[in-house]
Amino acid sequence: MKNQILELLKNKDYISIKRIFDDINEVDIAETLEELDKNKLLIVFRLLQKDKAVEVFTYLTTVKQEEIVVSATDKEIKHLVNELYFDDMIDLLEEIPANIVKRILSNVKEEERELVNQFLNYPEYSAGSLMTIEYVDLKRNITVKEALEGIRKTGIEKETIYTCYIIDANRRLEGIVSLRELVINNEDNKIEDIMTQDFIYVNTLDDQEEIAQKFKKYDLLAIPVVDKENRLVGIITFDDIMDVIDEENTEDFYKMAAMTPTDDEYLNSNTLQLAKHRVIWLLFLMVSATFTGYIIKNFENALSSVIVLAMFIPLLMDTGGNAGAQSATLIIRGLALDTVKVKDYFKVIMKELRVSIIVGTMLGSINFVRIMIFDKVEYKIALTVSITLFLTIIIAKVVGGILPLLARKFKLDPAIMASPLITTIVDALALVIYFSLATTILGL
Amino acid sequence: MKNQILELLKNKDYISIKRIFDDINEVDIAETLEELDKNKLLIVFRLLQKDKAVEVFTYLTTVKQEEIVVSATDKEIKHLVNELYFDDMIDLLEEIPANIVKRILSNVKEEERELVNQFLNYPEYSAGSLMTIEYVDLKRNITVKEALEGIRKTGIEKETIYTCYIIDANRRLEGIVSLRELVINNEDNKIEDIMTQDFIYVNTLDDQEEIAQKFKKYDLLAIPVVDKENRLVGIITFDDIMDVIDEENTEDFYKMAAMTPTDDEYLNSNTLQLAKHRVIWLLFLMVSATFTGYIIKNFENALSSVIVLAMFIPLLMDTGGNAGAQSATLIIRGLALDTVKVKDYFKVIMKELRVSIIVGTMLGSINFVRIMIFDKVEYKIALTVSITLFLTIIIAKVVGGILPLLARKFKLDPAIMASPLITTIVDALALVIYFSLATTILGL
Fold first, then answer.
1. Is residue A248 part of a domain?
2. Do residues A110 and A144 both lie within one domain?
3. Rounded CA gap, B244 and B131, in Å?
4. B106 and B170, same structural domain?
5. Sheet of strand B202-203, all strands in order from the earlier edge strand to the far edge
6. Which of A50, A205, A298, B336 has the least CB density, counted as fewest CB within 10 Å?
7. A266–B155: do the CB atoms touch at under 8 Å?
C-alpha cells in the first residue's frame, strides 16, 4: 500500500489516491500515513475527505499529529477542533508543545475554552483525563419514544449512544439506560420506569487502573464519571480502557524488569531517556550484588582450599533466582488480576512450600547424580551443592511468593518485587548456605 | 456482605436474602457466592430470581459452576441451558467433567446438540471457541424501520444488538450496520444503502491473540466470524476479548519467568500441577548454568592465584542479567503491542548499543571508584572488573534486544527469550571476558 501511494504521489495522481482512500478503513489509512515523511504526509492528509480526515487523525501517533497541526492553516485547525471528540482533543493538547497548544486553543470556541482548561488540569492517569463530554443525557420523565427521537437528532455527535445517562435539574446522575432497552421497550414507557439505578460509576480523580478493573469485572461499554457533588461530568468508553489495560500491563512488565515505567514507545524514545529509565535500578541492584560478593570474600579461605566450589556458584545463583522469579511472577500477576489477595498469605506460603519441596527434591537429586557422573569431585562436594540447591529453591519460592504480598500490604506496587530484586536477595542467602554447609560437611 | 448472608442463612431468613439480592448487581452477587461453601451456595443460588440466577452463574468460577450443575435437577439444568448464551454454555461444557457434560447435553434441544458438538470441536484459543451464535442478522433489501422492528422482537435474546450482520440467502456475510446507524438514519432507507462493506472479520480457526489485536486496532465492539465459504457462523464480543487480553498477558508473564503458561488460577491449582509447570524450565536452565560453571573450572588456576576475583562474580552475573532482561522486556513488549517489528532490527541494535555504552560507562566508572575506595585491592583488579562490567552490559543489551526479534522471525514466541534465558547466556559470556581479561591484565 505504502509503495502504491508513493508511486501515485510521484506522478501527482491525486485523484487515484483519493479514490483508494475512499474505500479504506480510517485505521488502515492512518497506518499508511504513519510511514510517510512530513511533506508527503501533509499532501495525502489534505486529500482525505474532511470528516474521514478527522477520524484518521485520531489514529495517528503524536509525532505525526504534531507534524500535521504545525503546518495546518487556521481554518483546518478550526475544523479539526470542532470535529474531534473532546477526549481526543485533550489527548492531543496534553502531548504537543505549548506554543501549538496556544494556537489550537485560540481556535476553540470561547465557551468551550474554560472546559478544556479544566480537563487539562485533571491528573494524568485519572478518570478526568480519560473522559469525554459527548454523551447522551436524558430526563427521567420523558418516554422511550421521546428519548429515541432526541438520540436520532443529536446521536451523530456523541461518542457512544449505547448507554444513556439520566440526570436531574442539577445534573446529578440518577440512572442509566442502554440503547438496547430503549429499542426493546414499549415506546410509551417512561424512562424512570426502565432505568437502572444501581449503576457502576467512578469519580474524576479515580486511578485508571481501578477503572479498568471495573470495566472488566462488570463487562461495561462505558462508565459515567461524577464529581464530588455526584454531578455527571463525563463518560469513559471501552476503547480507551483497552488502551489503559495495555498501558498498565506494560508498566508491570517494565517494573518487573527493573525499569522506570514510561508510556513512550521504544522506537520513538531517545537514547538518554532510555538510559535514564534503566540506569537507576541497575545501579541499585549492582550495589546490592556487591554485598553478595562480600559473602564470598568472607569465605575466601574455604574457597581457596577447595577451589572447585567456585564452579557451582553460577548454578546455585541462577537456579535460585529463577525459582524465586517464578513464584513472584505468579503472585504479582494474581494480585493484578485480583485472583490472589493479601489475606491469602498463608495459603501462598503453604503452596510454595509444597511446590518447592517437590521441585527442590527433583532438581537436587538430578544435580547430585550429574555431578557424580560428570564432574569427578568427591561425593561430599556433590552433597553440599545438592543440599544447598534444595534449600535455596525452598527459600527462593517462599520469599518470591511472600514479598509481592508484603509490598501490596504496605501499599507499594507488587511488581517491583520481581525477578531482579528477588534474585539479589536469594543469591546472598544461597551463598551463605553454600559456604556454611561446605565448611561443615567438608570440615574446612 | 458475606457475613450478613451467613447470618441470615443461620436464621433461615430466606426472604431477606431474596430481597437483598434483588437490588444487587449480578457480578457482585457472584462475588459473594464465590465465598460460600457448597451447601450454602446451592441454597442461596436457588433463592435468586430465575433469570438473574443464569446471569450470576456466568460470573462464577468453574469450580462453583460445577458444584451447582452437579446438584441441579434436570428442570434446573434445562432452564440454565436454555437461558445461557451459547458461548457461555460452551465455556461451561469445556471445563466440567465428561459425565456432567453428558447430563447437560441430554437437556439441550436436539436441533442444537449438533451445533454444540461442532463448537466443542473448535481448537482452544481459536475464534470458533470464543464465538457465540446469538447475533442479529438482517437481509440487505429491508428498510431501517423493518430492521428495528425485527430487533425489537428478537433483540432480548441476542448477546449484542449494537452491531447487526447482513447476510445473503446462503448466509454469506455481505456487510454490517451498527444500531447507531439504524437509529440515526431515516426509517425508509434501505439497509443495503447504509451498510458498511469493508468490515473487519475473522475466520473460525484464527488465534485469539490476533483477534484481540484487531479489536484494539479497530476499536471494535464485536467481530463477525466466518467459515471457509465466507458464511457467518458467529460473533465475538468485546467483553470476551477483554478476558483474552488478560490471558495473553498472563501467558507472556509466565513465559518470561520461565514457566509453562496455564489458564488455571494460582489458588485453584494443585501442588503437582504447579510443580510441573515450573520444573521443566528450571531443569533446562540449571543444566545451562552448569556450562557457566565449566568456564570457572577452566580458569581454576587464575582463580586460585588471585582468589579475590571470585568476589566479583555475583556483581558481574547479576548486572549482566538485569541489563539484558531490561532490553529483552522492552522488545518483547514492543512486539506484543506491535510497536516494534522484526524489520526494525537495525534500529534496535543501534539503540541498544548507544544506550548500553552510556549505561556501561556510568556503572563501570562508579564500580571502579567503589572498588578502589572500599575493597582495598590493586587497581588492576578494579580495572579488570570494571572493563568486564562495561563490556558485559553492552553484550547483554544487544543480545537482549536481538534475541526476541530472532524468535519472532523464526515464528517462536518472543516471550521465551526473556530474563532467565538471557541471564544464562550473558553469564557465560561475562565470565569468559572476566577471566580472559584477568589473565591478560594481571599476567596470570
1. no
2. no
3. 12
4. no
5. B202-203, B222-226, B232-237
6. A50
7. no
Q: What is the structure's pLDDT at B87?
A: 87
Q: What is the pTM of this model?
A: 0.84
CA B250 to chain centre: 4
At B348, the amino acid letter reads: V
Q: What is the CATH number of the domain that holds B173?
A: 3.10.580.10
Find residue B232's DSSP bridge partners.
B226
Q: pLDDT tens digit string along B258-297?
A: 888 887 788 888 888 888 888 888 888 888 888 888 999 9
Which residues on adjacent β-strands are paired with residue A431?
none
Q: What is the pLDDT of residue A279?
A: 87
**Do A288 and A431 belong to one domain?**
yes
Chain A residue with the nearest C-alpha to that of B277: A326
**Measured distance CA(B82)–CA(B90) in Å, rounded:** 13
* Confidence (pLDDT) at A290: 86
A49-A51-A53 Cα angle (round to 5): 65
- Please give the grid coordinates belonging to residue B96: 466440567
The answer to whether B369 contacts chain A (CB < 8 Å) is no
Amino acid in position B82: N
Which chain B residues in 325-344 lie under 8 Å from chain A, judged by CB atoms? 325-326, 328-334, 337, 339-340, 344
Judge: A27–B323 Cβ closer than 8 Å, yes or no.
no
As a whole number of angstroms, the distance between CA B295 and CA B281 comes to 22
| Interface contact B279, partner A, CB < 8 A | yes
Please state the rounded mean pLDDT for residues A50-70.
Answer: 90
Cβ(B69)–Cβ(B77) below 8 Å? yes
**What does pLDDT average to over chain B?**
90
Q: Is the ipTM of this complex over 0.85?
A: no
